[in-house]
Write a structure and sequence with these properties.
By secondary structure, the protein is mostly helical. The protein folds into 2 domains: 230 residues, Citrate Synthase, domain 1 (Orthogonal Bundle), CATH 1.10.580; 102 residues, Cytochrome P450-Terp, domain 2 (Cytochrome p450-Terp, domain 2). Helix content is 56%, strand content 3%. It is built from 16 helices and 3 strands. Strands 1-2-3 form a 3-stranded antiparallel sheet. A hairpin with a 4-residue loop joins strand 1 and strand 2. Helix 14 packs antiparallel against helix 15. The longest helix is centred in the middle third of the chain and has 26 residues.
């Protein structure tokens, strides 16, 4: 008898050499390397190259990769015009989706192979950096710019957003870009894979991914967790708030639980570290203390059920301490995820080229006669 798997849970649609996850033991690795070790010791550019091309770049390859990204930081004029023309209150991810779709209008039938990919992917990474930085700038009342290359992708991005930055923010951003780069095939990556399996171009595939990421069940947890802290207001309010809202069943505890993990999200460790490093003002320290107390209450209440803190619980604190408002958090997640999505679609199309075309089980009426 045919059966469906609601939400495609535990349905495998591809082989991969990219990301390994052991949800029971809280292990996550990119191509065999521990995620937190990569975040501590490597860089976004090196890890992106590893994910995309199967090895760490040598010095010449890294230099060429960075140079190709930096050559594509300037957006074409028509994308700048689109940015200026969109309503001021437009959703940040919606703007990114629009820009990616517009860029797709330049693309023909893209041929997925290593020679083309090594040219196209740095172009996309440069373009998307500028898109997201200028989305932030416009929503903050600033002018559109062509970002100036810094020493790293993270530095280039932060300077494009704020004009200046500091080493702690750069390292935190670099780590965030690595930690959020990939997570096997969640909804957004699956949407990109379905699109790419038709041999559609990379920009169209990314636009599909961002459309999926906009949904509140997928990409918005960091925003939700941070708004939760703001609602609580003070560390002294945590226990009463938790009792009245979470234990009573009136609200869901945002930033807790995950479909994959039955223990702590392994990425949490590094985000928690940088939340502590970057929280310097009294307001930031207050939010961090609220988060710590709420995490303790949540683990005490739900840990025995395998429900623990996930990475989105602290990532919003990191992004806010860098200077980003809450409504940019999910867009920063999107920026981080681009190279991981590109790695998945190139891996799939290059090695397992097959149109993704699932079936449905019919449950409607049998044969019916048309009414006379």
């Amino acid at each position: 008898m045919e059966e469906i798997s609601p939400g495609l849970e535990n349905v495998y649609i591809k082989y991969t050499e990219l990301t390994y996850i052991d949800g029971n033991n809280g292990i996550m690795r990119y191509r065999g390397y521990d995620i937190n070790e990569l975040a501590q010791k490597s860089s976004f550019e090196k890890v992106s190259y590893l994910m995309l091309f199967g090895k760490f770049p040598d010095e010449a390859e890294l230099k060429a990769f960075k140079s190709s990204i930096n050559k594509n930081l300037a957006l074409p004029d028509y994308l700048k015009d689109i940015l200026r023309s969109l309503p001021e209150k437009s959703d940040s991810l919606g703007i990114l989706q629009t820009l990616l779709s517009a860029k797709a209008s330049e693309e023909g039938n893209y041929k997925y192979d290593r020679e083309n990919d090594i040219v196209k992917i740095p172009e996309i990474l440069g373009n998307v950096l500028s898109m997201v930085a200028n989305i932030y700038r416009l929503k903050s009342g600033n002018n559109i710019i062509d970002p100036e290359p810094g020493d790293s992708y993270a530095e280039t991005f932060l300077k494009a957003c704020f004009g200046s930055t500091d080493k702690d923010s750069i390292k935190s951003m670099d780590s965030a870009l690595i930690l959020y780069m990939d997570h096997e095939i969640p909804a957004s990556t699956t949407a990109a894979l379905v699109t790419a399996s038709t041999l559609s171009d990379m920009y169209s595939s990314l636009a599909a991914a961002i459309a999926a990421l906009r949904g509140p069940l997928h990409g918005g947890a960091a925003e939700g967790a941070y708004r939760q802290f703001l609602e609580i207001g003070s560390p002294e309010n945590v226990n009463e708030w938790f009792k009245n809202n979470i234990l009573s069943g009136n609200k869901r505890l945002v930033g807790f639980g995950h479909r994959v993990y039955r223990t702590y999200d392994p990425r949490l460790k590094t985000f928690k570290k940088y939340a502590d490093i970057l929280s310097k003002t009294e307001e930031q320290k207050n939010i961090l203390e609220i988060a710590r107390k709420l995490e303790e209450a949540g683990v005490n209440a739900f840990g025995k059920k395998g429900i623990y803190t996930n990475t989105d619980f602290y990532s919003g604190i990191v992004f806010n301490a860098m200077g980003f408002p809450v409504d940019m958090f999910t867009t920063l997640f999107g920026l981080s995820r681009i190279s991981g999505i590109l790695a998945h679609i190139t891996e799939y199309v290059e090695t397992q080229e097959r149109l993704i075309r699932p079936r449905a089980i019919y449950r409607g009426e049998k044969e019916r006669k048309y009414p006379e």
